[in-house]
Amino acid sequence: MAGLITVFILETVDTQQELVLKGIAASPGIAVGPVFFFEKDAPTIEERSVAREDVEREIARLNQALARSGKELRKILEYAQKRLGEHQAKIFEAQVLILEDSFLFDTILKRIQTECKNVEYVVHNEIEKYRLVMLGANDEYTRERAHDVEDVRNRILRNLQEQKLISKLEGSAVVVSYNLTAADTMILSRNEVLAYATDAGGVTSHTALLARALKIPAVLGLREITSAVRNGDVVIVDGYSGAVIIRPSDKTVKEYVARRAHFEQFEQQLSGLRDLPAETTDGRHVELSANVEFIQELDFIRMQGADGIGLYRSEILLIGKEVFPSEDEQLQNYKHIADAMFPKRVTIRTFDIGGDKMMVQKVKERNPFLGWRGIRVLLEKRDLFLEQLRAILRASTRRNIAVLFPMVSNLKEVRAAKEILEQAKSQLRDEKIEFDDKITVGAMIEVPAAAVIMDDLAQEVDFISIGTNDLIQYLLAVDRGNEFVSSLYQEFHPAVVRFIRRIIERAKSHDIWVGMCGEMAGDPMATVLLLGLGLDEFSVVGTSLPEIKKIIRSTSYEEAQRIAQRVLEFETEDEIKSYLRSMMKEKFPDIPIE
Ligand code: PEP
Ligand code: MG
After folding, report:
1. Are 214 and 327 within one domain?
2. How sure is the predictor about 584, in pLDDT bands with cuts at 50, 70 and 90?
3. Whose CA is nearest to atom 9 of ligand 1?
């Protein structure tokens, strides 16, 4: 992929000792270059009383700042539309909409008039309330979106204080910042940005999405990069592994320059695979599809050659919403995805709420991961579930949608969910609305109990999708988000491997199609093993698609089965990993593995 990897040839290298920070690999590629410290002072806001005769002047200042902010944002929107297309640019449309929120700004106006306070204070105070609600959400996505609100607020404040933001780089540089908003990421990309590296942010943040779309390497969530570097320091950003090397030695720079050349060549090879099927050398075809959260990702996954969508996390539609999106709103979204991917298959997972994700109502649970989540919520919130299933069915007229139920732990749940699906179908029939009567129905295998009853479950569904993210945490009793036990969260624990083998075997004995949409499906070290265990579909994040395809296309099914058999004989995770690691080193030296 041309332009994915950028290198800055160094003239001088600092002699200080190098320091390696580890963050989240958010956009692939390797860059080496000097730091441009993108600093945005948090606005200092004083609360001041304003004389009644000056209130009009404050309001005029507000209107002027809003007009200027609107102009700036529309410029960014236009630039994003031009550079990335309509879909990606929607992020900025959302910000423009915040600026046009008449309820919010009427409230601000009234407060200035009645409280006789300075405009900066009221703007800050009112928008902050909104932001804090979003930040207090118990899902990561809404918290990330709070940055949009913060960005709009800070933009207005900056304009009120008539400050200019420096976003012009001298030459090419690695942008380092505490956090980057979508607008920062976009505006800075008008310069020659080699990479982004930030303290905050995660893989689902706007910065990550935009960096991938812009093909600029990014490592986020580094926590302390802003305190570890100064303007002009040389850094290496490795968007594959999530490492940032500060003040690298000559030797390290050379290594990375060589690695970059290697990847560049490899990326070129990979891009040649885009339109080829995910097929082993002896002709076993598997589906290689993508996990999708935002519709903005559709262009990217198509470009990466996805065979379809193996997991659409529909709960994303609930982000930042006080009420559930209506049936029509959902229909529009599902239809957009189905149309964009047609004739490829789109698997829509019904709202997976609870656990670490957003909730339908405020509930305090002592142990949310073992609590009210996924299908358990949907079956109790029957009207919402029915509405979602109606929307999915109405979007299914092109017959490329499948529906997937999350967090299934017993047969009764699947039967009840199917009953509601039948109810939705019957309503639509009565209303003479077209839908796919033969829509395929699947269950996520995330709870060990569901795996144990696979023989019975297979009678009820057309396919299953193994959600290893949850399955591993429930099988090994290790919270997937708890850093104290993260070393015990083991994809290659023999129990996990043997359990997956069993799930696939049992499902296949009933002619059920088996996919995997947990992160393990996108781990290159697991590809040959999963292939050998007989997995039919790998659903992975867009960035991983080409390398997983490369592995599949370079392996014979026979050999994969042999390797899987060998893996099943090992007794510890260490043995399995070291075996797979050396197999990968020998067969796929180009593919970076942990
Ligand atoms: C999983 O559990 O593996 C999965 C894909 O679902 P999520 O990560 O959304 O919980
Ligand atoms: Mg899950």
Report:
1. no
2. very high
3. 313
